[in-house]
Amino acid sequence: MLSELWSDIRYRIRAVARRSAVEREMNEELRFHLEREADKYEARGLARDEALRRARIAFGGVERVKEESRDGRGLVLLETMLQDLRYALRGLRAKPAFAIGIVVTLGLGIGANAAMFSIIDRLLFRPPAYMKDAEHVHRVYLTWVSNRSDRTERQMQFPRYVDFAQSTRSFSTVAAFATWRPAVGDGDAARERPVTAASASYFDLFDARPALGRFFTAFDDSVPRGAPVAVLGYAFWQSDFAGRADVLGKQLRVGHTLCTIIGVAPEQFTGVSDQGVPAVYVPITTFAWDLRERDYSRQYTWSWIELVVRRRPGIAVAAADADLRTAFRRSWIAQAAAMGQPPALESYRPRAALGPVQLERGPQAGAEGKVMTWVSGVALIVLLIACANVANLLLSRALTRRREIGLRLALGVSHTRLIRQLLTESFLLAALGGAVGLVAAQWGGAVLRAAFLPGDFPGGVFTDGRTLAVALVATIVTALLTGVAPSMYALRSELAVTLGAGGRETGVRRSLTRTLLLVLQATLSVVLLIGAGLFVRSLQNVRAMRLGYDVGPVLVVARNMRGVTMSDTAKLILEQRLVDEARSIPGVISATPVASVPFWANEGRPIFVPGVDSVSARGNFYLQAGNPDYFRTMGTRILRGRAFDGHDDVRAPRVAVISEGMARALWPGLEPLGKCLRIGSDTAPCTTVIGVAEEMRLRSLSAESEYTYYLPIAQYAEPTGMALVRVAGDAADRADLVRRYLQRLMPGAAYISAQPFRNMVDPTMQSWRFGATMFVAFGALALTLAGVGLYGVIAYGVAQRRQEIGVRIALGAQATSIVRLVVGGGLRLVTTGVVLGSLLAFMAGRWVTGLLFEESPSDPAVYILVAVTLVVVALLATAVPAVAASRLDPNVALRAD
């Protein structure tokens, strides 16, 4: 059966590729059979000529036999398809500008969708590479009541992970992991890189074999101090070790620990990290000991790991959730016992649940994923606009060919064959557009990933089968959308009318279809432009917002001791030396050690205020500490009172500066200066408020009830390991210089990192930046397509109405009235699109409210600006055909066929 099928396929291919040879073989075969049949008649006594005639009669006609043979093999259909394809190619070569315009238009639409799908697919739908049985793999989320509201987290403590692993029965694999960015390497080669610390069971989630060596095992991942071994990420192995096979057994310092390299992960293996492709994988127990250098395995106070589990076959999600909830309650009781506190299960209501392995589909999904989903919808709208534009162009072209089509129909060509021929042209254009779109998606997707997604985000359109499949479907749908309506419209009219009209349109049908397509383009363009305006205004609001500090000129400096043992006193001395050295660096304005850095590391301690009950219920209070240069370095303004100075040392009375919001929350309507704070416990000495500073944004740009208090670093009296350095100009330009200066003071393997403060703050603006960029880009593309479409329709309409316009001019119509006639028609179309698009945008506004920043989805300024923009584009698009119409020579127009 298969051999016969393969033989038939080979024959068809050969019949198309070598048609003359196949025809010759068919003729020879038929001649052979005819001669054998003629031999039979000749043996009966007939003459040779008569025998041949009888043989031909018996066969029923040689040509009929040939046609039946071709039909039986499917060759006629293949031949006509090739003829249609050659005809379409000739037609496109005859009008290259027309073809290029359509191909580029479709390419942009298809490419935008392919690029967005490649990103959305990886964020929301595609499981991590190599993951086994992905539909049964989940992240674990914990929820409990905190400050009278539910708090959901995916980070948990190591003993919690042990509790879940030991007390659940619904999972075949329970794996823990955490991704950090410690220093990897020694000396000047040391760089902070993403490192995944994972339990040995982590690799059981994947069907992946090491590219070299082995993964670590349960023996390596022993509590409390795991083996100092490391598995390299494939990209890191290639970039830093040149892909050498002798890397096994070599030493690599990860954080404090000198690890032995035992393996290399396979190419494209990323695990479930959301912070870029890990450079190194180490046992989670090794990493925990490296960070704490003490037993962490029974401490319920350090939440730092995440849990990924695989359900056993036959276990439903609901049953697994119930198992998790029970295990979490037991673990909560164990935690309370370990900390000497009552469990208070009814108050905290601890519960656990499974979530998707993709973060952007889980309960902690960020705004970026939601914005990308909307942008994907926008890409679809762009494709619809492109299809409407191309359909209009093809429709205009088909209408100019109506006389040709009418003649062909009159000569006996079937409607089916003509429709197939016109659709072949549409599919050819769509296929070429799809090829251009894939190139655009490859380039554009790389730009998007570099600008808006985590580093080393895997990509590549041409190597991604799912994206290629989506591009193919988009191409086919595009071909149908752009080809069916023009094909059917061109064949719909009566032959006599078509031939008599000379290719001109007549009656109401003259422009209805193209008008509707144009109104659709204008409507969708308005929706996109309004979305672009709303996101641009949101981004402007974010950038204009005062954060309570400066971002651009500030560097965040952090020391990593990497196993170098020093007393707290020695660390304090080192911190002071680092700050003094930073001040001496050319271009540095000021420097201060700090205890917290907004959007990176925030510290909080219990606050007690005499006469105020339940301080914690009034907000979240975060501690900042620095030297007298702190407020100058940060750029934070003191509103009332004073900042701390050099006199506020460890021997002086305790003082604090508080934020304006903290003052309102604790002493509403009262002057906070001179008030008493007790920090740490209700028996701690009074800390006197000496100043009020402007409010800081600490963890979120839109968070409320987050307040700050500031202490002199001398009274904080603890080594922090962090400092802020203010430079002249952009901090990014001075980061390497500051790092090299300060690295000289670090003992042994200790390491200094210096990165711009902007790196911590900018990711919080990512969703608005991405939304504004993509909406503006797609909106501009849609506006361009709509303008070109309007120009095409108006210009074609003028060409079709030349005789009518000539009559008007001959009867005395002025040029201005002709211009008004043409421009007015275009403006009416655009006005209809503006009204419909504004209504659609208004109705959809409630869905994007949560994605905007201090911006109303019904902002009238945005709607008015978009309407004015569309009107201006309409005026520009109709100006050329309007002027051309006003200059028509009535004699020439009236003589035209």
What attributes does this structure have?
alpha+beta; 4 domains; eleven-stranded mixed sheet; seven-stranded mixed sheet; 28 helices
Could you give the topology of this structure?
Layout: H1 2-17, H2 19-43, H3 48-59, H4 62-73, H5 75-94, H6 96-125, E1 137-146, E2 149-153, H7 158-167, E3 171-180, E4 183-184, E5 191-192, E6 195-198, E7 212-213, E8 229-232, H8 234-241, E9 251-254, E10 257-264, E11 280-283, H9 284-292, E12 306-311, H10 317-338, H11 345-348, E13 351-355, H12 367-400, H13 402-410, H14 415-452, H15 465-490, H16 495-501, H17 512-544, E14 554-560, H18 568-583, E15 588-594, E16 607-608, E17 620-626, H19 630-634, E18 638-641, E19 655-659, H20 660-666, E20 676-679, E21 686-693, E22 706-712, H21 713-716, E23 722-727, H22 731-743, E24 751-756, H23 758-761, H24 766-800, H25 802-810, H26 815-848, H27 860-886, H28 890-895
Helix pairs in contact: 1-2, 2-3, 5-14, 6-12, 6-14, 6-15, 7-10, 12-15, 12-17, 12-24, 13-16, 14-15, 17-24, 17-26, 17-27, 24-27, 26-27
